[in-house]
Amino acid sequence: MRKRFILFLVLILVFSSIIIAEDTVTTQSTSTTKFTLNLDDLSRNFVQYSTNSYLDIISNFLTKYDYYFLVATPVVGYTVGYLTNDYKLKKVSEDAIISSAISGGIALLTKIVVGRERPYAEEGSLSFNPFAPLTQGATYTSFPSGHSTIAWSVYTPYAKEYSWWIYIIPTTISFSRIYEDVHWLSDVVTGSFLGYYTASYVYYF
């Protein structure tokens, strides 16, 4: 019950800030300096002004090798569990694969329907073009974050079974999506919750 209440508050906070915000553009403003007082714009500006070489290395590494973190981990885990008769490892790896497939499908469908423009397009956090991904490509596939969705789907079963420290991996991957300027905060938050709760349902049921 407490988890549901916290989730409800977070979603209300994030999405209300998007809905009620208005662009404030001065005569000196350009498309690259346009600023709105909502969490998406605030977080983007904060991250852009907080970059450093260490974060660059981590973020670039996660972006370059995302396949291994998001796909290879559960496949290798299932294979090792099967070959060594480790039922627990096999089970959580299977849960990771199933939950990532379910949540990934939901995320993909939502991306197409919502058609939110990515931050680097510099059109603002309120730029939506429903079904644009079908004709205009990945620029309009910002919401929700697919990487965050899959990351939390994959690693949640392992974290529940072995150690909560494992949550550091999807958290870092999610942050890297904002750091790389390919997703807004609300994209990442929504994707993370989608992945986490889908994986939790699969894990327990």
UniProtKB/TrEMBL annotation:
Its main location: membrane. SUPFAM superfamilies: Acid phosphatase/Vanadium-dependent haloperoxidase. This is PAP2 superfamily protein. It is a multi-pass membrane protein. One of its GO terms (molecular function) is hydrolase activity. Keywords: Cell membrane, Hydrolase, Membrane, Signal, Transmembrane, Transmembrane helix. It holds the Pfam family PAP2. The keyword Lyase does not apply. It is found in: Cell membrane. Residues 1-21 form the signal peptide. It comes from Petrotoga sibirica. It comes from the Bacteria. GO terms for cellular component: plasma membrane. The keyword Methyltransferase does not apply. Residues 97-203 form the Phosphatidic acid phosphatase type 2/haloperoxidase domain.
